[in-house]
User: Which sequence fits this backbone?
């Protein structure tokens, strides 16, 4: 029988746990795959694995506390050894789309503070070009409409069009842990990923976007035929 999605996520998480050693300072991701990692990490901690982690969201923090995973903050521990996190898409060179769970800002800050980032996912997340998954963009609530127009204009300069939608509803938008709004941009394939990431960074109301470039060092992808690992430099 084919392994279900939860089983695949757990297998990827288990393989990532093999990269965790006692003494490590970890970044701990957000999402259903990262949660499988937290559960396995907690079991390791219960058996004596001596690690401390920075959670990338309040949701992950709550789960870590519930399962007694030792936590620190990025202010107390600004340099991390390893971040383990999920992704919405994994593209060439381990460029990623993240933010489906709305935690992209903290996820990116934590990944950037880490010596290594391992991405865990089921193999359905692997794509040839990023963009099938709508790109989450975290935006300041002030001037939201103006920022959305600027995002649309940035897209058109790259030949990208498509709906740009506020996550949640206009009356009750989804708010991130930082109190910002997420807009999901259904641009489709984004070939010039790095240049477009720079373009989004140049828009004042954009707090951060879900294109993670040059951050992941290893992807662990679980599929029906087992685990596949992809090194960023392979
Ligand atoms: O970026 C994220 C949260 O902001 C998640 O890692 C991403 O959405 C993948 O989630 P899942 O493991 O549930 O598929």
Assistant:
């Amino acid at each position: 029988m084919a392994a279900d999605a939860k089983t695949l996520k757990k297998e990827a998480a288990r393989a990532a746990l093999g990269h965790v050693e006692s003494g490590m300072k970890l970044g701990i991701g957000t999402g259903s795959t990262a949660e499988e990692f937290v559960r396995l990490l907690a079991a390791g901690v219960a058996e004596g694995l001596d690690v401390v982690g920075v959670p990338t969201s309040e949701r992950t923090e709550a789960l870590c506390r519930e399962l007694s995973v030792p936590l620190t903050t990025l202010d107390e521990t600004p340099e991390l050894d390893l971040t383990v996190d999920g992704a919405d898409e994994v593209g060439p060179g381990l460029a990623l789309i993240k933010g489906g769970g709305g935690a992209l800002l903290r996820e990116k800050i934590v990944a950037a503070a880490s010596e290594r980032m391992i991405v865990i996912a089921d193999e359905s997340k692997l794509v040839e070009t990023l963009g099938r998954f709508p790109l989450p963009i975290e935006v300041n609530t002030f001037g939201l409409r103006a920022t959305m127009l600027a995002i649309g204009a940035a897209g058109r300069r790259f030949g990208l069009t498509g709906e740009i939608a506020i996550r949640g509803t206009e009356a009750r938008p989804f708010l991130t842990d930082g109190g910002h709004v997420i807009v999901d941009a259904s641009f489709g394939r984004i070939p010039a990923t790095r240049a477009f990431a720079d373009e989004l960074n140049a828009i004042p109301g954009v707090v951060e976007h879900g294109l993670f470039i040059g951050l992941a060092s290893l992807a662990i992808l679980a599929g029906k035929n087992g685990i596949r690992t992809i090194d960023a430099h392979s």
Observations:
- Residues 32-46 form the longest helix (15 residues).
- Helices lie at 5-17, 32-46, 58-66, 104-112, 144-157, 193-201.
- The radius of gyration is 17 Å.
